[in-house]
Write a structure and sequence with these properties.
It is built from 7 helices and 9 strands. The chain is an alpha/beta fold. The protein has 2 domains: 103 residues, Aspartate Aminotransferase, domain 2; 107 residues, Aspartate Aminotransferase, domain 1. The strands form 3 sheets. Strands 1-2-3-4 form a 4-stranded mixed sheet. A 3-stranded antiparallel sheet has the order 5-9-8, covered by helices on one side. α1 links the parallel β1 and β2.
Length: 230
């Protein structure tokens, strides 16, 4: 199961990296399930490449899943889709048909319209997300003892906050990312997600899919309350 760009880190895999992963999977008879929900949300002039497009062998070994929730900001419309080998897609359809009912016709028509006409809106959104990403990255980089990687896609940043473990605030020790998130929520009134939810307890996930006004307030509060732990 492969996600590009990735949630939670925003890492973007280039063509050479995709080829290494895909060829390994083909050679070892491993089916690739590629989650491309953030395909249009890439920054710094990078061009997205679908892993299934790299060769005929890779194409025949790949199931691509996507939807309108992220790139088209249609989270509540609940439309996703998959493409892959006919026998696998047919089996998926048979299974899904016995588990859930169909999405509403309104959502389906709205999604068709988005897919056919939505690129101008996406381009504007990407420019705004890139601006917000830069702002959040620059502000987090100013906080001592935080290590931060500049994301290349999606709308998350995944700073390493392990240096704040074992710090004590109001008599309570911060032992892990969950404790730190609880501290930031309770004291700074900023909601972030513990890295342990993604398998890495040394990080927290911050979303910049919010207004610049709210992000400015959040960065001021984070700087203040991380400072209290130093």
């Amino acid at each position: 199961l492969f996600n590009n760009p990735t949630n939670p880190s925003g890492v973007f895999y280039d063509e050479n990296e995709l080829l290494d992963i895909a060829n390994f999977c083909v050679e070892n008879n491993i089916i690739i399930i590629t989650d491309e929900i953030y395909e249009k949300l890439v920054y710094d002039g990078k061009q997205y490449i679908s892993i299934a497009s790299l060769s005929k062998d890779i194409y025949e070994n790949t199931i691509t899943i996507n939807g309108v929730s992220k790139s088209y900001a249609m989270t509540g419309w609940r439309i996703g889709y998959a493409a892959g080998p006919k026998d696998i897609i047919k089996a998926m359809g048979n299974l899904q048909g016995h588990i859930t009912s169909n999405p509403s016709s309104i959502s389906q028509y709205a999604s068709v319209e988005a897919l056919n006409t939505g690129d101008d809106s996406i381009n504007k959104m990407v420019k705004e997300f890139e601006k917000r990403r830069n702002f959040v990255y620059e502000n987090l980089s100013e906080i001592d003892e935080i290590e931060v990687f500049k994301p290349e896609g999606a709308f998350y940043i995944f700073p390493r906050i392990k240096n704040f473990f074992n710090r004590i605030y109001k008599g309570k020790k911060i032992k892990n990312s969950t404790d730190l998130c609880e501290y930031l929520l309770t004291e700074a009134k900023v909601a972030v997600v513990p890295g342990i939810a993604f398998g890495n307890d040394e990080h927290i996930r911050i979303s910049y899919a919010n207004s610049m006004e709210n992000l400015e307030k959040a960065m001021i509060r984070l700087k203040k309350y991380f400072q209290k732990l130093q």
